[in-house]
Write a structure and sequence with these properties.
Its EC number is 2.4.2.29. Belongs to the queuine tRNA-ribosyltransferase family. It is built from 15 helices and 16 strands. Helix content is 41%, strand content 19%.
Length: 380
């Protein structure tokens, strides 16, 4: 299913074939947590205007509202959202551990209270797989324990052991579900998740154990980008990468900035997701090929130029910096929508340009040119 087309150092250029289409990697997955991109951007916008290959939705949020049973009755997420390309569903593990104020972890799973209405919910590996099967996503993520960082080595090790056992249960349950006549997507794939906090030994040991589960179609590195220094994150990727299967995609969960993506590709990662482009856009922070722009600054009050003169997104094709700044200052929803469209287009173009650089054997040159620049303040 995954073909490695080219490699430059550890950086990989590949393609991943799925039942909902082929994904060109490296790829950024646009985050539509509750089956929608925040900012008023539709599936039609994503497909026709923003170069989106994959959309990411969340098991926990969709289970709570509207309910995975509702989406199942509507024919699965693809029909529900009017999206015919791949969808990856996060297992809900991160949300269970980050949103639930009251939770109790047991071997069978996690008991917690909904952040919406407080009702008591139980989720374990089987439940997560059942919900994701109802959603009929292309790729389901395994249910894992997301440990707070930093954590004691002893607890982290015990958590890794539990996550391995939970992955085994996810594999068994997805196999069962994919064989049922009533299952919408009988070709749903499963990605395992590497954990171990920032302990190199735990990360390597855990990766060695989960890679033995050949049923998994890909593997993710989870539990990073949660407050640790960037160099620590890069170090963990470097330590884990040699032990990840070469013939399956690697996914760095929840990452990140444009610079993070370039640097993680340099270290061998294929898949990315992050709420940053849409969240930052809604507050007027925009990514450009000359650095980071704060569109509400007074300097743009009478600026007739597009956000980025090197960008061909709908916002840059049709509107000025002055107009978009005015929309934000007037609290018009259109401002947020245009900004979100720009940032998503930028991220999808970034990974497109990374793929082109890898195809042409000049990724190192691309990295040298843009890795620092994209993290700087736009002075244009």
């Amino acid at each position: 299913m995954f073909t490695l087309l080219k490699q430059e150092g550890a950086a990989r250029r590949g393609q991943f074939e799925t039942v909902h289409g082929t994904i060109q990697t490296p790829v950024f997955m646009n985050v539509g947590t509750s089956a929608a991109i925040k900012g008023g951007v539709s599936s039609i916008d994503l497909k026709n205007e923003l170069k989106t290959q994959v959309e990411l939705c969340n098991t926990y949020h969709l289970h709570v509202r509207p309910g995975d049973d509702v989406i199942y009755k509507m024919g699965g997420l693809h029909k529900f959202m009017n999206w015919d390309k791949p969808i990856l569903t996060d297992s809900g593990g991160f949300q269970v551990f980050s949103l639930a104020k009251l939770r109790k972890i047991k071997e069978e799973g996690v008991y917690f209270n909904s952040h919406v209405d407080g009702r008591r919910i139980f989720m374990g590996p089987e439940e997560s797989m059942q919900i994701q099967s109802h959603l009929a996503s292309t790729i389901a993520m395994a249910f894992d324990e997301c440990v707070e960082n930093p954590a004691e080595h002893s607890y982290s090790k015990a958590s890794c052991d539990r996550t391995v056992r939970w992955l085994e249960r996810c594999v068994a349950e997805q196999k069962r579900l994919n064989g049922l006549e009533e299952t919408i997507n009988k070709h749903q794939m499963l990605f395992g998740i590497n954990q171990g906090c920032t302990y190199e030994d735990l990360r390597i040991e855990h990766m060695k154990r989960i890679r033995e589960m050949e049923y998994c179609s890909g593997f993710a590195i989870g539990g990073l980008a949660v407050g640790e220094p960037t160099e620590v994150m890069y170090n963990i990727i470097e330590k884990v990468e040699p032990f990840m299967p070469k013939d399956k995609p690697r996914y760095l969960m929840g990452v990140g900035t444009p610079t993070n993506i370039i640097e993680a590709v340099y270290r061998g990662v294929d898949f990315f997701d992050c709420v940053m482009p849409s969240r930052n856009a809604r507050h007027g922070t925009l990514f450009t090929w000359n650095g980071i722009m704060h569109i509400t600054n007074k300097r743009y009050e009478t600026d007739p130029r597009p956000i980025d003169e090197h960008c061909d997104c709908p916002a840059c094709r049709n509107h000025s910096r002055a107009y978009i700044r005015h929309l934000f200052k007037s609290e018009e929803q259109l401002g947020g929508r245009l900004a979100v469209m720009h940032n998503l287009y930028f991220y999808n173009t970034l990974t497109e340009k990374i793929r082109e650089a890898l195809d042409e054997g000049r990724f190192e040159q691309f990295r040298n040119q843009y890795s620092s620049l994209l993290a700087s303040k736009c002075e244009d």
